[in-house]
Amino acid sequence: MGQTVILRGPSQRSFAKQLIDRAPTDAVVTIREATRTNDQNAKMWAMLSDVSRAKPEGRKWTPETWKVAFMHALGHQVQFCEGLDGAGPFPLGFRSSRLKVRQMIDLIECIYEYGSRHDVQWSEPPSLVVSEPGGSHSPSPEAPAAAGSHSMRGAA
After folding, report:
1. For a pLDDT cut of 70, what percent of the chain falls above it?
2. For the domain bounded by 34-156, which CATH number is listed?
3. Label partner for 128 (CA 20 to 30 A): which of 41, 95, 110, 143?
4. Residue ranges per structural domain of the chain
């Protein structure tokens, strides 16, 4: 049976060491940075829907298209394939579920910055602040990221 331990402090580290000491021969241990949280994901989709409804610069994009545009603006590699039905290209090769907590914070800040410049009305609760270990957090709608922290100019 597998075991996942989130290394938040000394007791979790001690427990992880005990698990390693008791592990059978040929057991595999993988240590990786945490990926985005469910709260971050929910916040991102609410924000993408808000941007989509606002139609900034006349863009009538779906939340999915906005997600691709924002991820591309932050330098995440986005590839496109031609659809089978001739309806045009579709994105492939990226998933926001693979983003690390800090990367997701950057994405949320990028969406805030762009939306704030285009007068998007945010619907997600302002109390939903998504933090990373160490206390850094994404801004609430009342305190958007400073303009220019992540530039979308020319990216969408």
Report:
1. 77
2. 1.10.3790.10
3. 95
4. 1-31, 34-156
Q: For 12, list phi and psi in degrees, rounded to 5.
A: -70, -40
Tokens 């579920």 correspond to: 97
First to last CA, the chain: 46
Beta-carbon contacts of 88 under 8 Å, excluding residues fewer than 6 positions away, are: 82
Q: Which pTM does this prediction carry?
A: 0.67
